[in-house]
Amino acid sequence: MTMLVLAAAATVVVRDATAVQCGVDSLRAGIIEVPRPGAVAAALSAARNPIPRAELVARLVAAGMPSLAATALIRELEAYRVLRRPRRTESPITVVGHSPLARLSAALLREEGWRVRRSACAEPGDLRQARGPVLVVDCAAHYGRLTPLLLQHCPTFLPALLIDGHGLIGPARISGRGACPLCHVLYRHEEDPRWFRVLAQAQAAAGAPPAALHTTAARLSSCAAWLAGGQDQPPGHPGVELAPGEVLRLDPHAARDMEHRETIPPHPRCPWCGAGTGQR
After folding, report:
1. Residues of CATH 3.40.50.720 domain(s) within the chain?
2. How many Cβ atoms sit within 10 Å of the Cβ of residue 87?
3. Mapping DSSP to helix (H, G, I), strand (E, B) and coil, where does residue 261 land?
4. CB of 51 within 8 A of CB of 5?
5. Given this model, what pLDDT does residue 280 score?
């Protein structure tokens, strides 16, 4: 039995006497001409909770739509992500770390309906049990110990840091591909040989500026949901995508272009995934 549910950001409203609209922004929202807009809006709104596809078709038919038209409409709304399959949550998202960013990101994921597994110190046993994506949050001081464990047990993981009032997400490791956290440290060391030492001290002493904290947590939780197979983005949006090795720098105080992206390859001197190790 195929179940369907309305996207969290989708709202079905009556546009006028001839159409319903799925959202407020007419440039993004789907506008559907139907004979009985009020009845069709009520039928679609029944999918606010998961509903069998066949039952939703039957409700639309009862609202005055021909069966073929109702089936075609449901397919169109699925393609536009107004309707989607209910989330499968067999594999939780693991959040390693207990900083404010780690706590807020975990809370946002739980609010979105994801199962979240927390880890304070990421002992080997903890990582062996991480079946879904792993977020490694504000753990730079432990990269030397964590990186080999992550590479061995976690095909998909995403580091994140709060630094100097901005957020840093990545490099993304996806299905065993992409640079690791140590690669990123090595690249930064080429720019500043004292970068890691300074970072460790700054993270131990710094607070969590609210703007950077909330901006980064929102983006990190969205990336984590995408890595876990979710489609949480609102209908009409292109959606989240991450490439292996991609790094996101988030600056909520920037005049424009708040997010900057770059992709880094495995560092040739990385002992775990550099040239010649076979772990690219």
Report:
1. 93-263
2. 17
3. strand
4. yes
5. 43
The DSSP letter of residue 174 is: B
pLDDT one-digit tens code per residue, 133-169 = 999 999 888 888 889 989 988 999 999 999 888 999 9
Asked whether the beta carbons of 12 and 31 are under 8 A apart, the reply is no
> How many Cβ atoms sit within 10 Å of the Cβ of residue 211?
13
Q: How far is CA 80 from the centre of its chain?
A: 18
CATH of domain 3-84: 3.90.930.70
Q: Which two tokens stand for residue 34?
A: 């139907």
In CATH, the number for domain 93-263 is: 3.40.50.720
pLDDT tens for 24-72 read 877 777 788 888 999 999 999 999 989 999 999 999 999 999 999 999 9
Distance (Å, whole) CA 263 – CA 256: 21
Q: Which residues lie across from 51 on neighbouring strands?
A: 4
Q: Where in the chain is the domain with CATH 3.90.930.70?
A: 3-84
Quote the tokens at residue 14.
Answer: 């009556």
In the numeric block, which tokens belong to residue 66?
């021909």
Residue found under tokens 């159409």: 19
Pairing of strands 83-84, 30-33: unpaired
Nearest Cα neighbor of 230 from 50, 87, 130, 77 is 87
